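User: Teach me something about this protein's shape.
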Amino acid sequence: MKQLFNRITAAWGNFFRKRRIEVLNATDRREEWYVHLSPAGLVAASVSIVLILFVIILTLVAYSPVLELLPGYRTEANRSHESLVQNIIRLDSMERVMNEMITYNQNIAMIMAGKSPVERTVFSSDSSQMSRILVMPSVEDSLLRAQMEGDGPYALVGDGAASRRAVRESIELVSPVEGIITDHFNIEEGRFGVRIAASSANRVTAIDDGSVIASQWTPEGGYQLVVQHRNSLIAIYKNLSQPLVSTGQMIRSGELIGYTYESEAEAPKPFELELWNNGKAVDPEGYIVF
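Assistant: First, the predicted structure itself:
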């Protein structure tokens, strides 16, 4: 036991005992440089160098675009960004649907209890914020109700109502897909429609009654449908992963006509919608409330 202790003590002393490291001239064996260094000092120096390199690399990664030089990093970053956008869209849609269901159930309960329902108002800045305002009758509301229930130009029945209904239906278009507009209509930039970031494999519906005049695939726009609607309006639905209608088929407003782009190998392409009226491109946001 004593011999083992002596060996450990000797090894520990040797670990801290300095050695003389010399650099000699090969010609005349003259000493040119020397340093005293112990194994413990060598280990400490190595650890210090590793820590300094780690701090330098961490600083470069955090405060410089050095990662942009790595092949494949930007592709992964774009995929992560697209995935984050898609998750935000899904969460926002789920939150909006849940708020509408909660308001609907509360209104049903209030109506069953003989109370006045509430009107849900969603602020544009945050869909989770909403105010509940009692729907109380007013003088203007009573006058409008009398006009709509009577025989005047704003009546709900009669010839006036039929003519207004025809005008409303001729200009009322529904949103083709649920999502966020990322690029707006701009002819100067060569963008003849709007681009909508929607969740992958989302439903795409017809904006109005019409007839499919073309169903084709292009390298730029993927599968796309060209539909002739009323009032000389032509809609082009681009970047579809799977069209569900064929050329010559009649479709109705809100009917499912395809799904948005879906690909596991690359980031999903945004859905595009173009509207052409009498051969001229028009802004879809002037016709549809997205």
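Now, about its shape. The chain has a mean pLDDT of 78. The chain is about 35% helix and 30% strand. If you'd like, I can walk through any region in more detail.
User: That's plenty for now, thanks!
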